[in-house]
Design brief:
Layout (H helix, E strand, L loop, with lengths): L1 H5 L4 H26 L3 E5 L18 H4 L5 H6 L1 H13 L1 H6 L4 H11 L3 E6 L5 H4 L7 E3 L2 E8 L5 E2 L1 H11 L12 E5 L8 H13 L2 E5 L11 H7 L3 E5 L12 E3 L4 H10 L1
Parallel strand pairs: 1-2, 1-7, 2-3, 7-8, 8-9
Antiparallel strand pairs: 4-5, 4-6
Helix pairs in contact: 2-12, 7-12, 10-11
This protein binds zinc ion.
Length: about 270
């Protein structure tokens, strides 16, 4: 460290050096937590997907500050709300279809492959954990998945494309081909209630782990934000990696305020 000071550098590169040094120290600390863990759970939020080009809809200036979210009751009761909901979904299709897993997703998939991470609990709806190679049964989607649709009556799943073709031809979404029920994306809307199976699985995984790693979640939304608390009460170590502060920062055994991708791939490379 000392010899760095001997070199004449301008101020900007000193700051860059310090950032670089901070990042290396964070990677090493994270790698140490991973080495000491037997069973880890990763919990991801919007910040994990922004590096794949999917914006955080809740952030200031984000989608939901421009468009009021359509809640579940409205969707069910109003044909106009359903049309608007599908219009919005198809308007974002190009973005979702083009999104690729980033270095953060890939590092998590590697930890799953090595058997260190048992489950990935996610608030994201973009399917990128599955695309990065995490087996679907190890991804717990608290807010559902926007890459397919489901019938609200019989639960049958459908691809998005036939719904879009019908919508473009008729100006209205089709009913379920099996029972005629309302079709909706596989996401959990405001007012819809959390998916009970996923909540139970996430709770079980959280209680069974000895390391709980939050990545890119502001931990502001309940009940998602309760998982790190449950993990701590079950004596797991808590790591929070997020660009901004979270309400649970003081509870963390390791707090890293940074982007996720480079940090995660660096830490995995050190294992
Ligand atoms: Zn149906």
């Amino acid at each position: 460290m000392g010899f760095r000071k001997l070199r004449k550098r301008d101020q900007l590169s000193d700051i860059e050096d310090e950032d670089h040094q901070d990042r290396l120290e964070s990677m090493a600390a994270l790698a140490q937590f991973l080495r000491q863990a037997r069973r880890a759970v990763v919990f991801t939020g919007a910040g994990c997907s922004t590096e794949s080009g999917i914006p955080d809809f809740r952030s200031p200036g984000g989608f939901w500050t421009k468009y009021m979210p359509i809640d579940f009751g409205e969707f069910v009761s109003s044909p106009e709300a359903r049309r608007e909901s599908w219009r919005r979904r198809f308007a974002t299709e190009g973005m979702y279809a083009a999104a690729k897993p980033n270095a953060g997703h890939i590092a998590v998939a590697e930890l799953v492959r090595r058997g260190l991470v048992s489950d990935v609990i996610t608030q994201n709806i973009d399917n990128l954990h599955q695309l990065s190679g995490v087996p679907a049964e190890q991804v717990i989607e608290l807010h559902g998945n926007t890459r397919y649709c489901k019938c609200l009556r019989c639960g049958a799943r459908s691809a998005l494309e036939p719904i879009r073709e019908y919508f473009e031809a008729h100006g209205d979404p089709p009913g379920c081909t099996i029972c005629g029920g309302l079709m909706k994306t596989g996401t959990v809307s405001f007012g819809e209630g959390m998916p009970q199976d996923e909540m139970k699985r996430a709770d079980r995984a959280t209680r069974a782990c000895d390391l709980f790693i939050v990545m890119g979640s502001s931990l502001l939304v309940q009940p998602a934000a309760s998982f790190p608390v449950v993990a701590k009460k079950s004596r797991a170590k808590l790591v929070i990696i997020n660009r901004d502060q979270t309400p649970l920062d003081l509870m963390a055994d390791l707090l890293i305020q940074s982007e996720i991708g480079p940090l995660m791939s660096g830490a995995v490379a050190l294992l």
